[in-house]
Amino acid sequence: MRSILFNLAFYTFTLLWATGLLITIPLPGRRAMSRGIWLWTHAVLWMARVIAGITVEVRGAEHLRPNEALIIVSKHMSDLDAIVIFHHLPDMTALAKKELFRVPVIGLLLRKLDIVRIDRQSGQAHQEMPRVIRAIREGKRPLVVFPEGTRTLPGQHRPLKSGAYYLQEDGSLPVVPMATNSGLHWPRGLGKRRPGRVVYIIGAPLAHSTDKAHFMKQVNTQVMDLSDQLMRDDPAHQHYPALLG
After folding, report:
1. What residues does 4 pair with on adjacent strands?
2. Which residues are CB-contacts of 100 (< 8 A; sequence separation ≥ 6)?
3. Integer Cα distance of 178 and 130 in angstroms
4. How far is the C-alpha of 210 from the C-alpha of 166, rounded, in Å?
5. What's the whole-number mean pLDDT along residues 19-25?
6. Minimal CA–CA distance to 181: which of 207, 199, 168?
7. What local confidence, expressed as pLDDT, does residue 40 receive?
8. DSSP characters over 15-61
9. Residue 73: predicted pLDDT
10. Cα distance between residue 142 and residue 121, in whole Å
11. Mean pLDDT of the chain
12. Per-residue pLDDT averaged across 83-101, rounded?
C-alpha cells in the first residue's frame, strides 16, 4: 500500500511541478529553474520518508564541493540517485546525447540548464572529452557520470564505460566516487518501494591516472564493489537472490 501511495503522490506531484517549472523558461539564466528543481528534490525526499518510509543518509558530503569543476562517478540503480546528487549540488550538470536536444520542450530545458551535449552514436565519444572538460571547467560545475550507462538492478553488473577516465586524463578534474544501496529500496520502474535506509558513501577523489586499466579498477573497487557491500549489509538484500552469494 505504501508503494502505491508513494507512486501516486510522486508522479502526480512531479507532473504538476514540471508544468509549473515552464514559467522559468523566459527568465534569464538557469538560476530560477535550478532553484525550482532543488525545491522538487526537497519535496520528493520528504515524500519518500513520510509515505514510503525511505530515509536517506549521505556520508562524505564534504567531498561534494559546490561551485567547483569535478566529476562524480556513481553507481546508478534508482531515480533517487540523481535526486540526491542534485539536492546537494543544485548547480550540477550532466551529459546528454545530442538527439535529445532536438526533442521539443526537453531540448529547451536541457539548453536552459546548460546540460553538456555529446554524440554517443559515433563510437568516438571520448574524442569529445576535451570540449566537455572545457565546458565543466569554465562553468565551475560538477558533472555526474554513471559508468554503467543506465540503471541496473541490485546484483546486476554491466561493463563499465570509460568516460570518467578520459575526463580526468589530463589531471585537471578530480573524480569523486559514490556508492549506494538505493536499488534495494527504490528500484527502477514502478516496482515496490521498500522502507529502510538508503546510504550514499561519497569518497575522497580517486588518484589521477593515465593508466586506463588502473583507473577503472579504482572505479570498480570504490563504486561497484562498495555498492555491493552496502547492499549485502542491508537486510533488504534478501529480496534479490543475485546478492545472496
Report:
1. none
2. 106, 107, 110
3. 24
4. 9
5. 84
6. 199
7. 94
8. HHHHHHHGGGTTSSSSHHHHHHHHHHHHHHHHHHHHTS-EEEEEE-G
9. 96
10. 24
11. 88
12. 86
